[in-house]
Amino acid sequence: MPRVRFVARIVALAAVVLVGVGACALDPQGDGSGAVAPAPVGVTERASGASATPAPARTTGPATVRPSRTATPKPSRTATPKPSATPRPTGASVAYTGCPQGDQQRGVEAYLARLGGFGTVTVDGKQSAADCAAIKRFQRRYGISPAEGRAGPTTYDVARRLATTDVRRCRAGSGLTFCVDLTRQTVWAMRGSTVVVKPTVTRTGMAGYATPAGTYSVGGRNLREWSNPYEVWLPYWQQFNGGIGFHETTTYLHNGAIGSHGCVNLLHADAVRLWELGRIGTRVVVLGRRPGT
User: Which regions are flagged for Low complexity bias (predicted)?
Assistant: First the structure.
């Protein structure tokens, strides 16, 4: 009986040596014996036999294989097709394709026509060369990026706010007055009943830092003011309420997800223009409330 068990162990050991261990039993981190684990196979949607490396065929001895002579095929002459002429459109007008058309085309056209000053615009909801040029000028003027002439939501929003700003709501004095409409996020300047700077875009205090409405006056000015709490330079600074003032924006003005800490952010050209006009004592009227604050 002991002899039978010994023979069985010998047979089992031989089987392990000849067959090997199953792949699913391998530890990818190694088995502690110092053997290197196999490299992981790249994940694919389906395993394909074509990607597997074929095992070398077993031969009983070295064999010399003479290469067969294969005639090299001569390349056939292929006639090069001549490009066909593109037919020119006749009769009906062809839609203008030199400028992308946005989903707010008609609305932007209507507001630009109302604002004026950006070129000829046809309010028909169809992009044209003239529409494209006018929209690009508008986008460049108000810092909308990219200025490619596409009537998208930002262009529509800016045009709507500017076109619907009622300058008569500002209680301007006989002298110069800076007016801020928090509701439409616009700024303009007046002398009495005369508009000296047309409405332009702004971005005021975000939620928790809402710019307060009221009547103030410019109390301090500096071409480049350093903000101690936020550690940033504020170009063309004109302070009118505590630590709140006008200044050039330090970020993309049309990012509505953010806002200032109460200040009235302006595009560069607008900040420069108000700086040139403003003086200590210039009247400031802030009205309305920024949506979401």
Answer: 46-64
Active site (annotated) includes residue 247: yes
Indicate the number of domains in the chain.
Answer: 2
pLDDT tens per residue across span 56-67: 444 444 444 444
Report which DSSP code applies to 82: P
The reply to whether 158 and 174 lie within a common domain is no
Which element (helix H / strand E) includes 211? none
Catalytic site residue 263?
yes
Determine the average pLDDT of the residues in 240-265: 95
Paired with 190 in beta bridges are 177, 195
98 within domain boundaries: no
Task: With CA atoms as reference, report the closest residue to 113 among 129, 130, 94.
Answer: 130
Element (H, E) at 200: strand 194-201
Cα angle vertex 206, ends 203, 210, to 5°? 95
Assign 256 a pLDDT band (cuts: 50, 70, 90): confident
Is this structure's pTM higher than 0.70?
no
pLDDT tens digit sequence for 142-172: 999 999 999 999 999 999 999 999 999 999 9
**Residue 292: inside a domain:** no
Q: CB of 283 within 8 A of CB of 178?
A: yes
Distance from C-alpha of 56 to C-alpha of 62, rounded to nearest angstrom = 14
Among candidate residues 162, 178, 210, the one where a domain is terminated: 162
Which of 170, 179, 247, 254 is an active site residue? Answer: 247
Domain that holds residue 113: 105-162
How many of the other CB atoms lie within 10 Å of CB of 195?
A: 15
